[in-house]
Design a protein that fits this description.
heterodimer, A: mainly alpha, about 0% strand, globular, B: alpha/beta
């Protein structure tokens, strides 16, 4: 990885990264505060006021009684597709697509580095930024849970849950990175980079609304992300993680390949 | 040093460059002239290894520019035609960044260039004027003292004083044995700094020639205004090639016969005399005759 480029990327993305990581941690903290193992659940009361279809669309049903299932239900069902997603989409757009769009890529290509190395550096930063978010949010959650509810969080499964989510985000990041490398104008990069992950999200939400349409949900990549199965100890989780990682490898290497071979009209 | 061989690059839509060939010798300053949209930047992109050619190839130091871009860039300084930097950097930060990317820096030379172009390098690039951005681009291209310089319309946005300083810099670099390829749509700039030039029009090379040869083919035109009909008659009788312009001024076209013009005008009551600015279009017309382009 090129150090000068790493510094540039950190400088360009530090604000967005900090905000998204902070907000995600903030939501984790709020949800954990609402957890009350003894009395009835305050969130349950609130959710009863909402239309049931909406609650199901956001995957808020079947929220169990333990701290882990509570967090998994409220954060890793729906909010997981919000803040890390924004970070992933914007960072991947900035790494290549936006440089092509603005033309500043010309200065990078005019330095004595192979396209391969430049693309690898950008891909690595893409992976690092999302890994950083999950690392911080996981450590934060573990510490916070240890203070509020000592001994109640199943640490091993919680870490696995985060690795599971991270592997999914490697695949989502791969979609964004490949779109970014394919784009000749910034708009195309964003159209694909936002469009594909959002389509999957909509499919997943439609599929959750009623059993009749469950098949629609299975068309979504996110169908492979099922925290309930993780909690139940279903080995499906490992298969899904394998698929996510395989997809990530495929998408990132395709992105690098496209970057190496394409025309840059900058 | 730089070789372009039967280079064709066709864009979707049919525009592009066709069978472009020329070379630049080591230690030579070479001008690449053409109007906007004639294919200068397309050719230069290929020289920088940014694009894949439809046909033909380019080499720098005998290395293919598309496949050996990494090796070539170590010797190269480049000014893009349309300069766009990274957001939120100051001039100094940008130059530091490029030095780190190159892995070499020459702070004394960079400081000399900053002073020479009077750049306020601590200002955010986003807030700089076009001319100031151009200066940052120029300093970035020259600051590591590269052997070869590829400059795409390097003077765009510069004021006349800075244009002059730039031409001085080119002449200095030339005398230090650097190889320079510089595109422009202004003849006088290339005339002052380069030994040879190629002219490109509609994606095809019209000519490659010495600057002196190009200049000798040029006709000068002067615009005079005289007081009355009798003066106009004098000019008519002298046989000087002339044309009465719509505003009553007379355009005289001279190819060396200055004495005839001077003696004729001496008999007239000349109210105003000025040289017409040489546009590239005029040069095309002059060089190829009226029907050429």
């Amino acid at each position: 990885m090129n150090r000068a480029l790493l510094r540039l990327n950190i400088k360009n993305n530090r604000f967005l990264w900090s905000i998204m990581t902070l907000v995600f941690c903030f939501y984790l903290a709020i949800i954990m505060v609402m957890y009350n193992p003894t009395t009835t659940d305050a969130l349950d009361d609130m959710l009863e006021m909402l239309p049931q279809a909406l609650v199901r669309a956001m995957n808020f049903q079947n929220v169990g009684a333990s701290l882990l299932t509570f967090i998994a239900g409220y954060i890793y069902g729906f909010l997981i597709f919000m803040f890390p997603m924004v970070l992933s989409i914007v960072v991947n757009h900035r790494l290549v697509g936006s440089l092509v769009d603005k033309g500043s890529l010309a200065f990078l290509l005019a330095t004595p580095h192979s396209r391969n190395k430049l693309a690898q550096s950008q891909a690595l930063f893409s992976l690092l930024s999302i890994t950083g978010l999950f690392t911080v949010s996981s450590i934060f959650s573990l510490i916070y849970a240890a203070i509020l509810f000592p001994g109640q969080l199943e640490i091993g499964k919680f870490i696995l849950l985060n690795l599971y989510a991270l592997s999914m985000y490697y695949a989502i990041g791969g979609i964004g990175f490949l779109s970014s490398c394919l784009a000749s104008e910034g708009k195309n990069s964003l159209a694909l980079g936002i469009g594909i992950p959002m389509t999957f999200l909509v499919l997943q939400m439609l599929g959750s609304v009623s059993d009749q349409y469950a098949w629609i949900g299975n068309l979504s990549l996110y169908a492979l992300f099922d925290p309930d199965k993780l909690i139940a100890g279903d080995p499906f989780v490992y298969t899904a993680m394998g698929v996510f990682l395989l997809l990530a490898i495929l998408l990132y290497t395709s992105g690098i390949f496209v970057f190496k071979k394409r025309n840059f009209y900058v | 040093m730089i070789q372009i061989s039967h280079l064709t690059k066709i864009y979707p839509g049919g525009k592009g460059i066709f069978d472009v060939s020329f070379h630049v010798e080591e230690g030579e300053a070479f001008g690449f002239l053409g109007p906007n949209g004639s294919g200068k930047t397309t050719t230069i992109r290929q020289l920088m290894g940014f694009t894949n050619a439809t046909e033909g190839y380019c080499t720098i130091k005998k290395l293919d520019t598309r496949t050996h871009a990494k090796e070539i860039q170590a010797y190269l300084g480049y000014v893009p035609g349309e300069i766009s930097f990274f957001d939120n950097m100051t001039g100094t930060e940008f130059m530091d960044f490029i030095s780190r990317m190159r892995g070499k820096s020459n702070p004394k030379r960079r400081q000399m260039l900053v002073e020479r172009f009077e750049l306020e390098s601590d200002r955010k690039i986003r807030k700089m004027s076009k001319g100031m951005k151009q200066k940052v681009g120029l300093i970035t291209a020259f600051m590591h003292d590269p052997e070869i310089l590829i400059l795409d319309e390097p003077t765009s946005g510069l004021d006349p004083l800075m244009q002059r300083r730039f031409i001085e810099l080119i002449l200095e670099e030339r005398s230090r044995g650097k190889t320079i390829l510089m595109s422009s749509h202004q003849f006088y700039e290339v005339e002052r700094s380069c030994q040879r030039a190629a002219i490109i029009k509609d994606g095809r090379i019209a000519t490659v020639a010495d600057i002196t040869e190009l200049k000798s083919n040029l006709r000068k035109s002067y615009i005079v205004s005289v007081s009355g009909e009798s003066d106009l008659e004098q000019i008519r009788l002298s046989g000087l090639p002339h044309q009465v312009l719509s505003n009553g001024h007379i355009e005289l076209t001279i190819t060396g016969d200055y004495n005839l013009m001077l003696t004729t005008l001496a008999k007239c009551n000349v109210q105003n005399l000025e040289t017409a600015t040489q546009t590239l279009e005029q040069i095309f017309i002059d060089y190829y005759g009226k029907e050429g382009f």
